[in-house]
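ARCHIVE CARD
SHELF: 3
SLOT: left
DATA:
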Amino acid sequence: MKNPDNILLLTLFGVFVLATVIQLFYHLYFYLAVSLKKDHKTVPVTEAVTIIICARNEEENLKRFLPSVLTQDYPDYEVVVVNDCSEDGSYIVLGEYIAKYPHLHVSTITKDPKFSHNKKFAQFIGIKAAKNEILLFTDADCQPVSDKWLAGMVAQFDAETNFVLGYGGYFEEDGLLNKIIRCDTMFIAMQYLGMAIRGFPYMGVGRNLAYRKSLFFRNKGFGAHNKLPSGDDDLFVNSNATGKNTRVEYSAVTHTRSVPCSDFSEWLNQKKRHITTAPFYKYRDKLLLNTEPVVRVIFYVAFIILVSTLTLWPVVLAIFMVRLIIQIVVYAKTQKILNEKALLAYSLIFDIFSPFLYAVVYLSNLLSKPDKNGWK
């Protein structure tokens, strides 16, 4: 009679092998695509563009970052800043810039105690005010890394393109939290950029995203998701992007960098707000996105059990090393492409713990109601 323990461990070994295969599929098919993508042949575009920035109490960030948006090397563009109920000196800063930059326009939303709204309303005001068909979005706390940002993003548009997904990273600072934020941002970018390259676009980031104004109104704006606190970027892309109408652009000159959260609770609240949009993704995308972290946990748990019980341990260790080597290659290439420095070791650790971190965020959302008018 066979030992039940042996049968159980052999079954676990089979699960481990299957988990490895699935993990390698994600890394080699989706994630590696980010560093292997061939540049799309573009023709320099001179079509007029509107850059839209929504700002609420962003006086210091407008002083620091808006000039880099207003001085892009592009022949015909306007910048629309939606000053949304700001109670700081944003109005004064914007007034000074309007006098200096004639292509800057400001739409002001005044505070009404009888009417509260989320960021989507401010986005809608900005889109309505835009004079041009191509819209490029970023945030008040974001800085384009070069004056070629606008030209690079717009160059991806052709007659069939409705969306261009860009990369928005965070400024490098000292401390562990900054490493976590940048690792998380890189992981998300590998997913949404890689899946878009393979024909499965599911989200973009509002820090660096472009689409057509006509598409927005043709598809009834933010539609059924209008009342959600988040989703002005990812849910709009998820609802309207296809493999044929979406391109990606993340060459070095087209990145943006944002101010990272300064403490863990602030970042955790930000993640809680962002994750509220996940249940509204297409079923296909939810399946693809949820499968990988679940399988990743199974992979690590199975590895620990098999090695600790010495079950086929040379084979198990060899499989683990193959996966680790491929993982290192993919992460190293991605970090180089996205200009995320000194993250390789942290990203390998983050790979282990991130599924549990996201589980905590998800459970926390179940136990508390997010602010329906949350803005950032």
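SLOT: right
DATA:
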Amino acid sequence: MSDNQMNVTVIGAAGDMTGRFLKGVAASKRDSLRFRLLDIDGAGARRAASLFPDAQVDAGTLDLYDAKALAQAVSGSDLVINGAGPFHRTADIVRRAAIAAGASYLDIDDDVESTLAGFDLDPAARDAGCALFIGCGASPGLTNVLARDLADRLDGVDRVDVAWCVGDEGPQEPGRSVIAHTLHMGAGDYMGWQGGERATRPTFVNTRHFDLPDLARQAFYECAHPEPVMLGRSFEGLRDATCFGTLHPAPINGVLRGVAEAERDGRLTEDEAIDYLQQQIAGKPGDKTAEREALRGMREQVARGEVSRGAYYGFLMRDMLKLRYRTRAATAAIVSGIKDGRPCRLMRFIDSSEADSPLKSMDVSTGLSQAAFFLEALDRIGTVSGCLTPEQWIDPKAFYARLATQLGCPQDEWLSPVKVLEGAPAPVPA
């Protein structure tokens, strides 16, 4: 990017993750950037504006579903940042407005439907000379970069698995859009990647385990995240791709699945399901009907052998006593393929479980990853166009260095070495 002024409009500026993103960007002290911060919560957007010098920012209220107001908001922008979820409802609206304004776009979209809709906008974005940088958070985003890193070390790629764990971060009030996405992920079918093509897959049904610090015994669930269709679009010859996620402690996955199935089947409204999960995370009593669905989900989890009865009853006891768990969190990628004519499988992960880990909080890991993507994207605006997923435009080494700066600690404190799980290829570069 040149030293000329660049106008950046941020939608959803009052949210927790976007707040972390803005703090990371503010710390970079890019004087050539001018920010317009907007949110349905105008007061929250104005509070976020205090991160920047007055001459560099203005803030206001925006209902992004008001087409005329949205068009006016993005007019004159060079780059539009969308932090307002859930993205299966907001992303397509804001992307189309950005393209119409001739602006590039960046988001942390973690829904499959809106990711596929972004792919469909590729021709329009190219015609307008705009770049749509989609899925630039932790998962997707950081997961995609790990996958790219490992794929570049092989001669050919056959399978990619990415995984994430979000741990107990104590009582908090997550936004409704975060809970809506989580419910969307917890039951039903999604579009994944199997046998070299898009395929309909069940979400939160299939499980597997990953050899990650403090998590080797925890069940991870194949989930409705967009990484599989992203990677299938990017890696030629890729046969299978999955995203597995889990919540720690393990019984929370049963709570999610029980409530999500009840919402899907009409036993709970979406608002009732969101209210209950928000109340549970905040440590408050919830609706009894929703609680019965949560208990059903956990009992079925025990019956499937995903957690022990001891873990189930221990969770209920800790919940009753308002005791918290130590945060267990991680982000990982495993890539299988060919190296020097032989099968090879590589793994790399980010361990976020340590008490002093800068990445153990979901809003920090997502927001600061987004800030690193944003700062990398600034140099590409005007030189690339179309719908781009992280593994298509990010150099992993450069990204790790950028993220280390955002986190304020060297990458060897949070990024594992590359581990060879299968095969004995030539030495794997650091």
